[in-house]
Amino acid sequence: MAGTVTTKVMIISDTHCFQFGDAEKVRGTFKQPLPKADILLHCGDLTERGGLKAYQDVIKMLSCIDAELKLVIAGNHDLSLDGAYWYTQGCDPDDPKDYAEHEKGIEIMKGPLAKQAGITYLEEGLHTFTLASGAKLTVYASPYQPEFCGWAFPYERDEDRFNQPHQSAPLVKNIAVNPVPDFPGIDIMMTHGPPEGILDWVASPPGTTVGCHALLRAVSRARPLLHCFGHIHEAYGAMKVTWKDDKEKIGADAIEDLRPQPNVYPDSSNCSIKFGKETLMVNAAIMDLNYNPRNSPWLLDLELPRST
Ligand code: 5GP
Ligand code: MN
Ligand code: MN
Q: pTM of whole model > 0.70?
């Protein structure tokens, strides 16, 4: 394709304190060392319950991966990275050390050791990067997901965090501060939670889908090359969505076809994705439902636009 740069992208999520260096100790395992990539994406649930030592260990884990650009978001388990949550429900306000964990945690995630290792911790919104190869990417990131059992980065099921008010479904409360732009505004979406109906089915009760309706509306408008997430460990996998030509169609109505994609790790999938017509959806949860690291990273060759 003219005007693009082939870029190796590795996607992981839900490592929950796992160190890839320990993989030999784990049955099922990963091919070691992890392959080199141009971009590493981590879609949240870095830790079990946050904690400064845990964030430092996450930086160590990410430092061991060879990639020029490492984009990282938090998830519901990274409790103190969510300031709004931490100060109202997470911390003990009478314990100064506990109270300070939000600021100190963010300092670790954005600090000099993280920078040296090529790690960029992303807050919700749009972020643009250019690689040494000249590949340019605009990423929409969000660590938020529907409220579940009182964890961090929550929104309610009847709230829409991802669309402009006129783009929300009827009777939904729009709370978007950073709405997702329409096509062709973004190349990659990184969220902790899945969109409704795509790699979002839970083990119990069987067949239940728990992904976000508003997020599906948003991704159907944005039609990025890649939307990666995690959160629902048992729904690990990848699917290529083909969108209908009619860009007025929104949400599930916009989907023409949904096709499972195999993981060929440690090789990389050469997925030719037609921008605006197709989106590769990847649930990259490394941990299975029992928090055992049984799932491989995803490795893709993605055609990104060349910076002009
Ligand atoms: P985590 O606690 O790591 O965020 O999610 C672990 C597991 O909790 C998921 O694999 C899924 O089984 C379950 N889970 C997470 N969010 C939801 C939800 O919104 N609804 C339901 N029913 N289960 C969820
Ligand atoms: Mn998780
Ligand atoms: Mn989660």
A: yes
